Amino acid sequence: MADASLVTLDSSLKQHDTKVSSGGTVRAYSHDTGTGPVLCLVHGYPQSAYMWRHVIPLLKDKHTLYVPELPGYGLSSIPAKADKRTVGNLIVEGLQSVFGKDRKVVWIGHDRGGRVGHRMLVDKKPERNIISAMLLDIVPTTEQWRSFANPVASVAYFHWPFLASPAAPQIIEQIGGYNWTKGNLERIKGSNATGSARFQENDAIEHYSTLFAKPETIKGSCADYAAGAFEDVSEQEQDQREGRKVGLPTMVVYSASNLGRMHDVDAVWPKWVSGEAELRCVGIQDGFGHYLPEECPERVAELIEEWIGEYGK
């Protein structure tokens, strides 16, 4: 099922290939209940929108969904610039082409999708209509880089500086994008046996590994990490100097045994969120790892429902 997609798994979803202002295309999948905010579910590395396959059935009967493929990750076009603002604007442009500019948006981003969401929240552009967010298994990019002073963190997240290096695309192609991706997915998943089995359902590892064997995906995802080492960090440092912080209600959901092992997540995030905005940090226990929407989708969907009930009006 390497060529499977959310549409092949669920025929009720609509696929959109939207031409955007960059000249490229944003691919996404949607389900419209006709009311309420649009839940924008954004994936991370090294994955695709396929990662939401277990969560979508739990939400779609009650909530409107927009599930994009990250620009540069093999299914949406490579953007001219890979910084999080540029990528986020393209996703919002795609969403508004489907739902119009008046529908409110709740950003729900995992990994790189969460980092794009963080940028969107700090920018506070009213025309994006984002009213709240859930960020899954991340600390702010700058905090992640700071953690590399810890040798354990440097080894655990070695792919950060590697992927940001100009040599990374060529090296990965020499290793084989398929082999590189398969190894990384095996390395980061959690220790919970049930969660590991759920993660692997629908031939997910084969799906992602095949997608990341494409030179375009290797190039685009490495550009994302390069932006995350330079432009994104510079912007976050300037934000902190000038007092620009997240000003919308935000829930941070994280793996206690993964991210929580390297960071005091509950202590880090208040430094990046305005004291006037609601911030809630929830650590998921029981050995569920980084890929929370796949390893424990019921718990993630439950938290989404709880959050939308409070901050999705």
From TrEMBL:
As recorded in UniProt, coiled-coil segments are none
Q: Which Pfam families match?
A: Abhydrolase_1
Q: Does the keyword Hydrolase apply?
A: yes
Q: Which GO terms describe its molecular function?
A: hydrolase activity
Keywords in alphabetical order: Hydrolase
Q: Which residues form the AB hydrolase-1 domain?
A: 37-143
Q: Which family does it belong to?
A: Belongs to the AB hydrolase superfamily. Epoxide hydrolase family.
Official protein name in the record: AB hydrolase-1 domain-containing protein
Q: Which organism is it from?
A: Friedmanniomyces endolithicus
Q: What is the taxonomic lineage of the source species?
A: Eukaryota, Fungi, Dikarya, Ascomycota, Pezizomycotina
